[in-house]
Specification:
By secondary structure, this protein is mainly alpha-helical. It has one domain (6-150). It is built from ten helices and no strands. The chain has helices spanning 6-15, 20-27, 29-32, 36-43, 47-50, 58-71, 79-100, 105-108, 125-130, 133-150. α7 (79-100) crosses α10. The protein is globular, with a radius of gyration of 15 Å. It starts with 5 loop residues before the first helix and ends in a 5-residue tail after the last helix. The mean pLDDT is 94.
C-alpha cells in the first residue's frame, strides 16, 4: 500500500492551478524520483488533452508517463517486451474508460463550452463547479496507485 494518498495530492495540485497532467504526474514524484518542479515542467505540455488540443486526457498521459518511467523500455528491448509495455498502457486506459467511457479530453468535456484555443481558462469558482476534470485527476491517480500496488517495480 502506498504511504502517499496520490489521489488527494493530485486533486490538491489541480485545485492549486496545475493542469490535469501536471497534477497527476507531480503527485507521483515520490515514486518517479522527480522533484516537483521538474515533474511539473515535464507534464506541462500534456494538459487539456495535449496543449489544449483536446486529444488524450492529460491525466491518462500522466499515468502513461509514470509507468514508462517505472516499467518502460530503454535500448535493446524485444518485440514481446514492447508488446507487454503497450498492454500495460492499454490496461490503464481501459480502467479509465470503465469509469468515464473515454480517454479523449473533448469527449470527456462533451456538453461544456470548451475550445482548443491555447489560452487556458481562468480557474474561478464557476470553473470548478462545472468542470469534471478534478474527478478525472482523482480517477487516474487512484488507478495508478492500484496498479503500482499490484505490480511491483524496481526503482
Amino acid at each position: 500500500m502506498m504511504s502517499v494518498d496520490h489521489a488527494a495530492l493530485a486533486e490538491r495540485y489541480f485545485i492549486e492551478g496545475m493542469n490535469c497532467a501536471q497534477s497527476v504526474f507531480a503527485a507521483f514524484s515520490d515514486v518517479t524520483g522527480f522533484d516537483r518542479e521538474t515533474a511539473m515542467k515535464l507534464a506541462s505540455s500534456f494538459g487539456g488533452g495535449m496543449g489544449r488540443l483536446r486529444e488524450v486526457c492529460g491525466t491518462c498521459s500522466a499515468m502513461f508517463m509514470v509507468v514508462g518511467l517505472l516499467y518502460g523500455l530503454g535500448e535493446g528491448f524485444t518485440q514481446e517486451e514492447k508488446a507487454e509495455h503497450y498492454r500495460r498502457v492499454q490496461y490503464l486506459a481501459g480502467k479509465f474508460r470503465e469509469k468515464h467511457e473515454t480517454i479523449v479530453c473533448r469527449e470527456l468535456l462533451k456538453g461544456l463550452a470548451v475550445t482548443s484555443a491555447p489560452e487556458p481558462e481562468l480557474r474561478t469558482e464557476h470553473y470548478y463547479k462545472v468542470r469534471p476534470c478534478v474527478r478525472f485527476v482523482r480517477t487516474a491517480a487512484a488507478i495508478l496507485d492500484e496498479y503500482l500496488a499490484e505490480n511491483p517495480y524496481e526503482r
